[in-house]
Amino acid sequence: MEHIEIQRFTAADAEALADFLAGEEWPFHGSGRVDRADVLRRVAEGYYDDEEARTFWILVDGKAAGTLRLFDIGDDTPLFDLRIGAASRGRGVGTHAVQWLASYVFTEFPEAQRIEGTTRRDNAAMRRVFLRCGFAKEGHHRRAWPDAEGVLHDAVAYAILRGDWATGTVTPVEFDDEP
């Protein structure tokens, strides 16, 4: 079994973060490719670590396998961006990271009542991660997520409630409530 750990990003990691993000293809993110210079600029601007955002490395056997960016920390519903490198996909790394994230948020931020994440409809792996981690599907946004070529995909929103995390349950969403 691989050893997975989560480590907080620091500004000293800027070059490594830029190399990691620019060195991978991100098929289910907006652009698919990340510009190294943009990452370095965003680090300098506090995008990855400030009062509203924290970024973490996901390490597998001591090597960078992914990143987890938590943002809107001051809100009662923080959001996150998860990126798992191609070599580590399909090995449980994402599930481990999202379980860790829920524990971290609900332990460190008492005002957080829920955590929300959104993915493209065709990102079956991430959708399975959400469900494995106790998140409930809360929304389906038709043709809301453009890809790098401008093709619009459906977006699917998931969230976990503090109480559900604490009890290990999933409160069902009442979708059929139209008058």
Biggest sheet features = 4 strands, antiparallel
Overall strand count: 7
Give the strand order, joined by hyphens, for the main sheet: 1-2-3-4
> Which H/E pattern describes the elements?
EHHEEEHEHEEH
Report the oligomer: single chain
* Low-confidence runs: none
CATH class wording: Alpha Beta
CATH homologous superfamily designation: Gcn5-related N-acetyltransferase (GNAT)
Shape: globular
The assigned structural class equals alpha+beta
pLDDT averaged residue by residue: 95
Distance between the termini: 51 Å
Structural key phrases:
179 residues; four-stranded antiparallel β-sheet; 5 helices; globular; three-stranded antiparallel β-sheet; alpha+beta; Aminopeptidase
